[in-house]
Amino acid sequence: MTAAWALTTVPTPRGRIGARLRPAADDAGAAPLVAILHQSPLSGWTHEPVLDHLAHPGPVAILDTPGYGLSDPGVGDLADYAAALWDAVEVLRDGRRVVLVGQHTGGHLAMLVAAAHPGDVAAVVFHGVSLYTDAERADRAAPYAPDIDDDPDGTHLATIWARLTHLYPDVDVALRNRAVCDYLVARPGYAAAYRAVFALPVAPIVDAFRATGIPSAVLIGSEDLIAARQDRVTRALGSRVVTLPGLTDFAPWEAPADFAAALDVLVDELLAARTAPRTS
């Protein structure tokens, strides 16, 4: 049986980071901390079922990106977001190595964190990541995440709902309801992390991560919005792609046991592949 998990905030020099924390099992030994970084513009609830199903004996933390969920507002570029998340990881890991699991924007953040701390990050699992070309970044920067201003008559709620329905027409309404809440509480706005991603060239991030030699893999639902782009990750990083049939961006909720079991397998494989620690 897995240990009970708790919702809290982690104080750091850059502000509080929201966290869902599951402590290590009594027999965990030096098993790494698994730190999960969610997609934008949502928060850590998207991976909550992992905490109840993952067999990994080490501690597990799902962290809210700065400005989302329970985290204090984010400032600066994507590297600043990554640094703030690492501050929280440092508080939580208690000297353990770290396995990063990053979804979409969280995947970009995972590469930045890993490149900055190669001696402490043992492996990375991408829950889907988009390796945009410069042309794709420029094309998506303006139209993909337009501002949604609060309106006294509540029409902004309809705008958010229409966006979520367009993106996730087959996702359960209850999950879309939770996503609406994330849009509403994001600070300074739901689009901040999107824009941070589109502002930063991807190739240097990939090159820096590849240079670390940290092993990586991809775990993604076949109906995830970016499932078709994961062949780029294989070409760039040699990452093995594991696809869960019929699941969307919300795979941890749609098939929690299957998602967690697949993640357990990948974590074990990647830790075995990391035969020699590196120094920062």
What does this structure look like?
With 280 residues, this protein is of the alpha/beta class. Helix content is 42%, strand content 16%. The protein contains 11 helices and 8 strands. Strands 1-2-4-3-5-6-7-8 form an 8-stranded mixed β-sheet, sandwiched between helices. A hairpin with a 2-residue loop joins β1 and β2. α4 packs antiparallel against α7. The longest helix is centred in the C-terminal third of the chain and has 18 residues. The N and C termini lie far apart (35 Å). The model has no long low-confidence stretch (mean pLDDT 95).
List segments where confidence is low: pLDDT < 50 over at least 5 consecutive residues: none
In DSSP terms (H or I, runs of 4 or more residues), the helix count works out at 11
Strand arrangement within the widest β-sheet reads: 1-2-4-3-5-6-7-8
Task: Identify the overall geometry.
Answer: globular
Descriptors for this entry?
280 residues, alpha/beta, 8 strands, 42% helix
Can you describe this structure in just a few lines?
By secondary structure, this protein is α/β, with parallel strands linked by helices. The protein is built from 11 helices and 8 strands.
